[in-house]
Write a structure and sequence with these properties.
2 copies of one chain form a homodimer.
Chain A: E1 13-17, H1 26-33, E2 40-44, H2 53-62, E3 65-71, H3 79-88, H4 91-95, E4 106-113, H5 130-133, H6 135-144, E5 147-148, E6 152-155, H7 162-177, H8 184-201, H9 207-239
Helix pairs in contact in A: 8-9
Chain lengths: 240, 240
């Protein structure tokens, strides 16, 4: 059953943050506060006096999803991330002797921009898409046999309203930990798991109510699954 | 007369080299030996303990052509060049207050690669063109109103034979100092100027011979110009 894919797996995510002045970055501080509480390793690249190549490589081997998170400087990641690439991602490590230790892992990009979304297109103020700007990272993913996730852009963080920021927290957490693809089934499973976790954290006297909510959510989800199946059947008949 | 364009101008070129181990790089040492003797400033970015932003910016203002020269690491320039970009090319300097101090200057890229030319295309080992990999630099040029020169790639320098290396010296010198576009007329003017310079350096007893050679070159050039004009006329009539 594809809809249950990844629901019970425990996935580990590594978030590599590159920012030369992290403490001064409101967006990076916000994202740090928004991190999921479990199964996420967070690392600030520029925060280390000297990169420990062996340890960085070992860490990459252990995780399932790698997130590169940075502000866009001159249509690319800051120099700190490039230094990390140039140092940690040796040729021998990435594809030497046809061993590909990163093969099958996922690579996601969380990129903040000072310009709004429409700037990133031909004829826009920046004149190129984020996909085009980050093509070198996509090529790196291809070389390492990493699965490239669609980019997670955050345009003009400082202009976001409160409801947009709340939405960003959820979307960001899903980008870090939800199994791919970002399908309805995977979203449902992800939210259901979060609900179970929340209910378990409730005080004893609220457990019954919490479980009731969880069971209603589950029923709705089953109902939705049935509807989805029916729709799929109708679509199949149409295609014939 | 377009064919004489730039022939008597003195153009200054700045070559910014980024390489973390310059002394160990045979290609970079070769290119350093191949530099034209005049009107070229050569600077090794990583060779400086700390970048002097004001001085770097002043230097950029003074020159006519800026060359970024580096090996391709993970489909981009090394971290050193990115650090230079992030530090020296402040927003205020590049396009603040709608002043564009670099407008109209030329930006060229000399990039060495470990992989052969066919690797840089869809389906090739690297899966993307050099143009696509270096799109962020082209976008930077566009933002700064710099004129982007076609990339000057050097594929697998260590496999070049001696005649190819000699050709490389000439092509490299032309890329650094010849007026654009790379037309027949501009090439002729460039070679003619080099010949005049060489003749002047000859000992007195060889001056007469040298001047004879230069004058034959000039006659041939005039003859070639006439042929070019004739061809252009024929082509015009065909187009009618």
């Amino acid at each position: 059953m594809k809809k249950c894919e990844g629901a019970d797996e425990v996935m580990t995510t590594l978030v590599l943050v590159s920012h030369p002045q992290l403490a001064d970055s409101t967006s990076q501080q916000f994202l740090k506060e928004s991190l999921p509480s479990q199964n996420v390793i967070w690392e600030h690249i520029e925060g280390q006096a000297k990169l420990d190549v062996a340890q960085e490589q070992a860490q990459l081997r252990q995780v399932d999803r790698i997130i590169l998170q940075f502000p866009l400087y001159w249509y690319a990641a800051p120099a700190g991330l490039k230094a990390w690439e140039d140092t940690v991602l040796t040729r021998t490590f990435v594809y030497g002797d046809h061993r590909y230790p990163l093969a099958g892992k996922e690579l996601g990009i969380v990129v903040t921009t000072g310009m709004p979304e429409p700037a990133f297109q031909r004829g826009g103020a920046e004149g190129l898409t984020l996909d085009a700007a980050l093509a070198p990272l996509a090529a790196l993913a291809q070389r390492a046999k990493l699965t490239w996730l669609p980019i997670f852009p955050i345009y003009q963080f400082s202009y976001l309203e409160e409801p947009e920021k709340l939405q960003l927290v959820v979307d960001y957490q899903r980008y870090l930990t939800q199994p791919q693809p970002d399908s309805l089934a995977n979203r449902q499973a992800w939210f259901a798991q979060r609900l179970v976790d929340k209910v378990q954290q409730l005080p004893a006297e609220q457990q019954a109510t919490g479980q009731l909510i969880a069971s209603v959510f589950d029923q709705n989800r089953e109902h939705l699954d049935q509807l989805t199946d029916t729709l799929a059947m109708i679509k199949e008949q149409e295609d014939d």
